């Protein structure tokens, strides 16, 4: 637990309503200099001028020092600083579908040990300006498919920070909008506003999943497919299906711009169906 000083330093607000991500690399580990060229990206759960909290799939040692770059939003300069790990809690994370195995994660709290006065003021202003605001009042829904848990979680966080209701799965057969018959959504109703899927997954590819939806008259218009290595033939296939393409690893800003474009094209008269909820309940009852 934090002491009183740490509580004041880490009197931080949740970031569920806005985008905030950090890139980090271990700078010093167990008193040994170990500057790593590898950077990892994580979604920041809590942030203040004194430190931040994030979830990570590996256990970092207490007192490890890290180089950090923090992106609060596109209109706020990137924060560059150094942080020290002060607390680690292990927990088990369950997918949104409650049908996949638990994954071990770490909740990691850091304090900023090297950060400029201007950077601290920037964080304070950013936190103060967005506190309590819902930046996206329109109800939106997204489907995310990827067997890479870390990437799937990162995409989930990006979408939730924009106000989306997110349903994510490691493969199409777990997806709540997977169809084995004609789409049951009423006219002017959509099961989701967007779908983003990996191309290679267990049991069914992303292409096969999208083709199945189209074959069963699914009306979702905003679909993106991700791949770490596109071939010309695959890019042509995606184009024929009307899908946007991302090459892994893609930049967060690139993904955000695609979401901006999708949201601008949304018809305000279209409504979301209850298909995902009904499908989840049906699978749980089997």
Structural commentary:
This protein is α/β, with parallel strands linked by helices. The chain has helices at residues 4-9, 117-130, 149-161, 206-215, 232-240, 252-264, 275-285; strands at residues 13-14, 21-29, 32-33, 40-47, 51-56, 65-71, 79-93, 103-114, 140-145, 164-169, 189-190, 194-198, 222-227, 244-247, 271-272. Residues 1-17 and 129-137 have low confidence and may be disordered.
Helix fraction, binned, reads: 25-40%
Strand content: 25-35%
Radius of gyration: 20 Å
Task: Domain count, please report it.
Answer: 2
Residue-averaged pLDDT: 78
The CATH homologous superfamily of the largest domain is named Response regulator
Tell me the name of the CATH class of the largest domain.
Answer: Alpha Beta
What's the β-strand tally? Answer: 15
CATH architecture of the largest domain: 3-Layer(aba) Sandwich
Largest sheet, described in full?
Answer: 6 strands, antiparallel, barrel
**CATH level 3 topology of the largest domain:** Rossmann fold
State the separation between the terminal residues, measured CA to CA: 42 Å
Label the structural class.
alpha/beta
What is the N-to-C succession of helices and strands?
HEEEEEEEEHEHEEEHEHEHEH
Number of helices: 7
Low-pLDDT residue spans: 1-17, 129-137
Architecture blueprint of SSEs:
Layout: H1 4-9, E1 13-14, E2 21-29, E3 32-33, E4 40-47, E5 51-56, E6 65-71, E7 79-93, E8 103-114, H2 117-130, E9 140-145, H3 149-161, E10 164-169, E11 189-190, E12 194-198, H4 206-215, E13 222-227, H5 232-240, E14 244-247, H6 252-264, E15 271-272, H7 275-285
Parallel strand pairs: 9-10, 9-12, 11-15, 12-13, 13-14
Antiparallel strand pairs: 1-4, 2-3, 2-4, 2-6, 4-5, 5-8, 6-7, 7-8
